Amino acid sequence: MTAARADSPWPWFGWSARAWARPWRAFARDFAHWHGERGLELGAGAQSALAPLMLGLVRQVECSALDAASLPAIEARHRARLAPQEAARVVHSVQDLRALRGRWDLIVMKSVLGGVHRLGRSSVADAQATLEQLVAAHLRPGGLLVTLDNGRTPLEPLWSRFGARRNGWRFFTRADFPPAEAVYGFGLLASFSAATRLGAPGRWIDDALYGADLLLSPWVRRHAVLLHVYRKPS
After folding, report:
1. Of 44, 63, 163, 228, which is the most buried if we count CB atoms within 10 A?
2. Are 70 and 46 in contact (CB under 8 A)?
3. Is 89 helix (H, G, I), strand (E, B) or coil?
4. Is 214 helix (H, G, I), strand (E, B) or coil?
5. Contacts of 140 (CB under 8 A, 6+ apart)
6. Do the Cβ atoms of 203 and 210 come closer than 8 Å?
7. Could you give phi then psi for residue 228, rounded to 5 degrees?
8. Which of 182, 178, 171 is nearest to 28 (CA)?
9. How do residues 113-171 score in pLDDT, each as one tens digit?
């Protein structure tokens, strides 16, 4: 397999990659001047592991999964798709957001907060406390926390009985988050992935929805993908 560029978002985001990658690209553009030594990705999976995208911001990345069983697939994907010198800068581990130890310059998590703080089991205040704890206890001075989350759009009632929503996955509005240094959002129709249910035909549907979202997104106040950036004071 041809090695993928570490700074190209398409291979790393899994389902609905274009929609999720768009806020990341905006963040990477605006914070291109920022650099650190050590980064941590929380909640990586076999289909979505953003550690390669972090290599442009930090020297070494710890790519962590909650389940050790998923690590072999994640490691194999990185070895297959990264140039050897880039793959050597990524280490793999098992980490639990709720029992985290250590401090990093950059922490990134995608679709983690909504699963940890599911409806009926915790509150928005609990999710806010988790973000504040990550900044206070696990970032080095001047470090960044980047969280990408599922946004609650006006169409949410249509999808409430499908996918992870049936298990109480929390979808957020911008008002649910503490004040951030930077906020990015994208999309209205990228609230679910057809590819997870239909395979290749579903990816075509996802691409068509992305095209529609390019037109709709500037007019939408509640986006399907939200990215927040928090910085620990130096």
Report:
1. 44
2. yes
3. coil
4. helix
5. 36, 103, 104, 105, 232
6. no
7. -120, 140
8. 182
9. 999 999 989 999 999 999 999 999 999 999 999 999 999 987 776 655 555 455 778 99
pTM over 0.85: yes
Tallying the residues shown for the chain, one arrives at 234
Amino acid residing at 40? L
Q: How far apart are CA 12 and CA 45, in angstroms?
A: 10
Strand 225-231 to strand 139-150: parallel, antiparallel, or no bridges (unpaired)? antiparallel
CB-neighbour burial class of residue 196 (10 A; exposed 0-12, middle 13-18, buried 19+) = middle
**DSSP string spanning 69-84?**
GGHHHHHHHHHHHS-H
Distance CA 74, CA 151 (A): 26
The residue written with tokens 């979808």 in the block is: 171
In angstroms, the CA 231 to CA 102 distance is: 17
> For the chain, first and last CA: distance in Å?
42
Note the Cα 204 to chain centre separation in Å.
Answer: 22
Amino acid letter for position 189 = L
